[in-house]
Design brief:
The protein has four helices and six strands; from the N terminus they run βαβαββααββ. It is α/β, with parallel strands linked by helices. The chain has one domain: Rossmann fold, CATH 3.40.50.
């Protein structure tokens, strides 16, 4: 199979795997025009997807079938799909010792504020989840448009690191 036909596996990591990393998995898998497949996991996975995250995905008509929080050790198993990219999306995972992923995937930190930590009324909290969603959507769009097959590893690493530094507005627009 050539690199053009190959499917690239992408793992999004977040401590509880209940919102930001779930957004990454769902958004990437909702892109039908790519050869990218998303997964998500956490170091301390929650019991369920955060209700605000689930409601937002439903309202955006993004499929949620099969989405659920899972421990990142699922992807260390022998029968797990090999990851080509691993992106941490919360600052808490930076302080943790991450597993050594088989195959030495390209890794980057795409920190996004934790919407579940926002205090206030439901409207304020829902806005925090929308902000996280749009930040993830913006980064995934940039990532999905990279010419993965034509970049060497160093260039690819530079590109995914730069995506993690991208600022977005609440509507998902990119700003350098």
């Amino acid at each position: 199979m050539s690199d053009v036909e190959r499917t690239y596996n992408v793992l999004f990591l977040c401590t509880h795997n209940s919102a930001r990393s779930i957004f990454g998995e769902a958004l990437l898998n909702s892109l039908s025009h790519t050869n990218l497949r998303g997964f998500s996991a956490g170091s301390e996975p929650g019991e369920r997807i955060h209700p605000f995250a689930a409601n937002l995905l439903h309202s955006m008509q993004i499929p949620t079938d099969g989405l659920h929080p899972k421990d990142w050790d699922v992807f260390e198993r022998e029968d797990a799909p090999a990851m080509d990219f691993v992106f941490s999306v919360c600052d808490k995972t930076l302080d943790q010792t991450c597993p050594t992923w088989p195959g030495h995937p390209v890794t980057a930190h795409w920190g996004i504020d934790d919407p579940s930590q926002v205090q206030g009324d439901d409207a304020t909290r829902q806005q925090a989840f929308r902000k996280a969603f749009y930040a993830m959507r913006s980064r995934i769009q940039l990532f999905a448009n990279l010419p993965i097959t034509s970049l060497d590893r160093l260039s690819l690493q530079s590109e995914v690191d730069a995506i993690g530094q991208t600022e977005t507005t609440n509507d998902g627009e990119n700003h350098a």
